[in-house]
Amino acid sequence: MKKILTSVYSGTGDVRKENQDSFLCKTGKIGRHTAGLFIVADGCGGLADGAQISKLITASFNNFWDTELAALLQNRRINKDEVNTILERRLENINREALAFGNQMGAKVGSTISLMLVIDTVYYIKNIGDSRIYRVRYGMKQLTEDQTLVADMVRNGEITPEEAKTHKKRHVLSMCMGYFERLRIYSVSGLIHRCDNYIICCDGLYNYLSSKDMRSTVFRRRTSRFESVAGDMRNMIKKGAARDNVTVIVLRFKGNYW
To answer: Integer distance in angstroms from the first to the last C-alpha of the chain?
Structure first.
């Protein structure tokens, strides 16, 4: 029997008055399949109505869970290419809605998205912007790639990873939802192993909490108290240091996985 344990935290942080982040956390049996859909969307604070775009994203995928995904999984074998196509089509549709909203408001709008869809023992990740998904197994591995100006410069060999850490434009996004007409979607899929843990979070968490602290917090929590692990991570950020909204979803997979 497969089981997905979840823990969620979302808050304003220590400085911001409004939480522009949104999240979605859905689990259940659909037909013969064990499924989960997990999203962190970080509304861009430097643009107008970031909260509206992050809410648009999670509302659209909540509808996706109830309609399109249910129809896909109901008593059918899963075609990976079809799953990827459906997810990317939904992202493109949301992006068009967000662009139209921005045009109507006469403002630039935007949001990141980190999405993880689980069907039985397979995960599908779609990422736009600089929110992240990590896998915590024996060590900790970032499964997504940041879409920022500085991260692009590192990948292109223009600067070193060390230079990127202090670069004055390190927080400038090179891709997000609602700002660009053509999306560049980072995609990856893989197999889930028994007792795997995954962290889905905005930059308001990982900018102020080290990977070592995130990993140790996950491993400290036994299954019986797993629901508190996301809040534990927030509380590990030094008092007054959380200068952005903080949102994190933590997952643990129990049962008949690889």
So the answer is: 12
Would you say 247 and 54 are in contact if contact means Cβ atoms under 8 Å apart? no
- The two tokens of residue 173 are 């996004």
Q: From CA 135, how far away is CA 199, in angstroms rounded?
A: 6
Residue 19, domain extent: 3-254
Distance CA 151, CA 129 (A): 11
Q: What is the pLDDT of residues 17-51, one digit of tens each?
A: 999 999 999 999 998 999 999 999 999 876 667 89
Q: Could you tell me if residue 58 is left (phi over 0), alpha (psi between -120 and 50 degrees) or otherwise beta?
A: alpha
Burial class of residue 235 in the structure, from the number of CB atoms within 10 Å of its CB (0-12 exposed, 13-18 middle, 19+ buried): exposed
Contact 169, 150 (CB under 8 A): yes
> What CATH number does the domain containing 191 carry?
3.60.40.10
Provide the number of structural domains found in the chain. Answer: 1
pLDDT tens digits along 61-118: 999 999 999 998 886 788 999 999 999 999 999 999 999 999 998 888 999 999 999 9
Looking up tokens 């949104």 gives 22
